[in-house]
Amino acid sequence: MNDLGLDHVIQCRTSPLMLKFHNGSRIIFKGLDKPAKLKSINNISIIWIEECSEVKYEGFKELLGRLRHPTLDLHMILSTNPVGQDNWTYRHFFKDDQNNRFILDDERLYKERTIAINDTYYHHSTAEDNLFLPVSYIKQLDELKEYDPDLYRIARKGHFGINGIRVLPQFEVQPHEDVMLAISNINRPLLRAGMDFGFVESYNALIRLAVDHEKKYLYIYWEYYQKAQPMMKRYKSSSNLPKQKS
């Protein structure tokens, strides 16, 4: 503040890190490594989460609970580079296939740039919108297209998508009847069942699959997902699952 010549109107404090103005307004800086620490904050009218995709969903929900003020309008600002579509920011503000929830097609946002839906204001920007980026830096971003398409999609185009290397890059979704017909035509199929335990956020998953060794095809023909259930309840639920036919 001294360098800017504002020390006479803004006070800097370090515990907690804060800027305090003469009219009583405050800017408080907080990390979200432990969201429970935010419970002591009150009378907040504006919250800005920078790089919100790096914040856990629990932290975002905790901040929603802190956003309240007796007289002022409430606003929350979230800014981030788009990452994978599995990130909570995409599922919360755009589309969540798992829970059949749709808010906005991100492709529409890329085209229109600015959209308001209910009480949420969306804005999409790219490197051209940053007046402080040198032309040489934008050129470097353009070169990413040749050797790192994922980073090019995020840093240059600002698009969500599949982030990183796909485990099953040729995965296809087909009608169940077609899958079962294909399995019935396999010569000596390898049939297996798999399970992965989850907890509160991640899912408990059960799958049944068949492998066609000759064609090198893997078919997943039965799935069961559930989360946020006590262990005993999960056990009771799984005992009622349909049995695999021999």
Automatic annotation (TrEMBL):
It comes from the Bacteria. Gene3D superfamilies: 3.30.420.280, P-loop containing nucleotide triphosphate hydrolases. InterPro entries: P-loop_NTPase, Phage_terminase_lsu, Terminase_L_C, Terminase_L_N, Viral_DNA_packaging_terminase. Residues 2-159 form the Phage terminase large subunit N-terminal domain. Residues 196-233 form the Phage terminase large subunit C-terminal domain. NCBIfam families: phage_term_2. PANTHER family: PBSX PHAGE TERMINASE LARGE SUBUNIT (PTHR39184:SF1), PTHR39184. This is Phage terminase large subunit N-terminal domain-containing protein.
